Amino acid sequence: MDDRQLTEELHDSLFAIRTQVHGELKELAREAGLTDTQTDALWRLSRGQEMTARRLADLLQCDASTATSMIDRLEKRGLVRRVAHPTDRRVKVIQLTAEGCALRDRVIQHTTEHSPFAHLDHESRLRLHTLLREAIDGRRPDGEATGVEDSVQVEDSTKAKDSVKKEQQ
What we know:
Layout: H1 3-32, H2 36-45, E1 51-52, H3 53-60, H4 64-76, E2 80-84, E3 92-96, H5 98-113, H6 122-137, H7 148-168
Helix pairs in contact: 1-5, 3-4
């Protein structure tokens, strides 16, 4: 199998996993009376870091007004609350309520139980995790580019930036 075909099949596999996970979550979301995006927001809020509406919008790949409307609906359901940012009073942080935490825990448990990775042993999941992080980050843990395409993209990006700098001078 050549690199192009292998890459295509990797993408096919990722789409298949996404479809499987999305299908499982869709059923749970329906039972909980949530939209897919609201379920995704609960998942994102479960990571424990402070989350602003802007940050949540970025993670959900939507505009800020869409995220704000969704947060409003989650707040009306008692799943989230807005609290003052600890260092910037102009910013509100979105937090899960006790009810939101309970629903998030249901989402996580359901996802874990129905995970397409469940049939892999622990060591295989660790290897896959490392490989996926490398693919996402575009770098290997040792700092080297993950592949020829990445090296070319980095080189092209550097050339483009240098070109812009020269034009600005």
